[in-house]
Amino acid sequence: MPKTAAIEDLLKVMARLRSPKGCPWDREQDHKSLRWHAVEEVYELMDAIEAGDDHEMAEELGDLLLQVVFHCQMAQERGAFNFEKVARHLVDKLIRRHPHVFGNSKVKTVDAVWAQWEQIKKAEKKGTKHERPSALDGIPKHLPALMRTEKLLKKARKAGLLEAGAGTGKLSKAVVGRRLFELTKYAQRNKWSAESLLRAEMKKEERNLRKLEKARERKKTTN
């Protein structure tokens, strides 16, 4: 049996579910109604991975793939794109962003690979509506506050907007974890959302970092 048979069957099943004689629930969905389903499936996949459960991992990967084909089917119905276009775009991007595998680039270390990836990505988006002029661009807005804060700080450090040692100290990981927990408990006791508080602070710090970045760019152009 051809390796593509299962994918073809999956696409046919999805099309049938969305057809006039298909499933009422599947037919009434749209991209927005499904957006949080994909998030939930990712977290369930993470649980399976951390449990080391291959059976559950395969099932959760299937559920995540369902989200992909569901969105592709809905997009195809409105003439936007289809599964073939999504897969082809991914193949082309992987080849384009791995010139050290498919081309003549000589990078060998993980850090060099990541730097090359970012350079290629930036060049791809230059001059388009998806251009990322700031080193802080490209962080998903809907990431949980703590994850988004970590990514923001990582990008800021790479861009030299934070000192290499900024935020370091002599606290152990256990102490930091305990303090995070205690702060969350304190916020809850006061009927505050720790998630919202951190998100608000993170947005404020991001604005400050972007101002610093722009100031440095202006200084470069005037020198």
TrEMBL record:
The UniProt regions of compositional bias labelled Basic and acidic residues, in chain numbering, are 203-216
The record's region (Disordered) falls at 203-223
InterPro entries per the UniProt record, alphabetical = MazG-like_dom, NTP-PPase_MazG-like_N, NTP_PyrPHydrolase_MazG
Q: Name one GO molecular function term.
A: nucleoside triphosphate diphosphatase activity
- One Pfam annotation, family name? MazG
The UniProt entry's GO biological process terms, in alphabetical order, are: dATP catabolic process; dGTP catabolic process; dTTP catabolic process; dUTP catabolic process; response to stress; TTP catabolic process; UTP catabolic process
* Domain (NTP pyrophosphohydrolase MazG-like): residue spans on this chain: 29-102
Q: Which residues form a coiled coil?
A: none
Q: What is this protein called?
A: MazG family protein
In its UniProt entry, the species of origin is given as Pedosphaera parvula (strain Ellin514)
